[in-house]
Amino acid sequence: MSCGVRVIDLTSSLGGRALAKLGVAYAPGKPRVAVRLADSESAPVIDWGGPPGRDEPLCEPSAPGALVLLIGPGAVHQARELFQRALNEAVRCVRIFLMPSAIMEEIALKQMRMPHHESIQLYRLPDSSSETLWFVLIEELQKLSARFSSGDNTDSRKREVSMSSNLSQSMQSIISIEGAMAAALVDHQSGMCLAQAGSGVDLELAAAGNTQVVRAKLKTMESLGLRKGIEDILITLGDQYHLIRLIPNSPGLFLYLVLDKARGNLALARYKLTDIERSLKV
Fold it and tell me: How many structural domains is the chain composed of?
């Protein structure tokens, strides 16, 4: 079962820039658009648009899903009104994403009756980039899809447990490499961190940042007409190596390793990453 999400966009341009990443044209005041995040019929669908009319329900009562309020500065009145409507209509799940500059909006919402329940949550975005918005939104969709899915059978649950165990084992194998400080498996289509291990690095932030590095390199290769795939990207710091290794058998994914220069062996780390990627099940 897919997780349907309605996004009510109260920003001047962030929503449009985010949808432009998917090739969808949208601007405030324009008609709502339905966006499927993948080609699969089971992929989440986002109904994206501005505030609904007073007689229009925020969400279909019978449909599993969530209401997302994307709030920018200058939307205090609309934010308060929509949140109160969500409470009055007993919307099943509400997520509020505030741009960093929406300070008055955050104060106004926190002054309202905010139920202490997981069905209603408020997030302040760390920055106003479309990449960060997609990262946070898709991560939340993953959680909501699992929460609302009621058709999972025993076999699918077993597969999920097996996959989770495989990812955990792979991360532990990577972090056991001599000199390894932190590691992650990242989806560079969404910027989402699928698995991680280690410490000393904000891996979710690193995943989003390195996603942009991979996208930029892939775009450059396409512009240059280079057909061979990328094996890895190396970033050398004064005391660390940051190694990004794309997974050929799982397009869209890459392994990210932070290696201590003094303790690690780069050649050995590359070899072990290559070996570990073969056993990944995603």
Answer: 2
